[in-house]
């Protein structure tokens, strides 16, 4: 499986950057995980947008979905040009309902709610686990039968990571704060140190930090996490590819 960072900033992009989005290439499928602001411009460097096989949206906050509405237009154009003849399968939480309703667009989207049941696409299995966040948000565990990627989405410190299965080959976890900056009342996000601690508890083989404040130097985040996490630990940058 190949994991490409298309966007890693939050809550708005850095200059030339993008908020959250990742391309998963595996089993001859190309699947978009989250679709934040600026993600489509990065995706278009990799492939024709209309050739996507599926989309998963971890939750319906704008920094994870804003470009999804522009993706709908790319599908419309491709459909009019006979380049795409089938709806795009999209999985997303059904809440908040007014945002879930907006994910449909003519007959171009085959929309399905994320729930407790796992989803199979070819040899790939996607399973979903609620995180500690302000609205329903799901971590996504992806397996090709041999290796696993755990995408932690947005997740606060009450997230039950161990319910998601141990030893992911790659754990993609948010690092919104340096630990000393954590707000007194956590609001569904983690520090780099907490991300590393979750990685240790999960016995993750590799850690990738994401959900980065665009005006922060990313280096101290990596150093804070690497002081706790014993394995390879990287801070996301757009275009980074990890083969699992
Ligand atoms: Zn969020």
From TrEMBL:
Residues 18-211 form the Metallo-beta-lactamase domain. GO terms for molecular function: 3'-tRNA processing endoribonuclease activity. InterPro entries: Metallo-B-lactamas, RibonucZ/Hydroxyglut_hydro. Keywords: Zinc. SMART domains: Lactamase_B (SM00849). The keyword Zinc applies. Pfam families: Lactamase_B_2. This is Ribonuclease BN, tRNA processing enzyme.
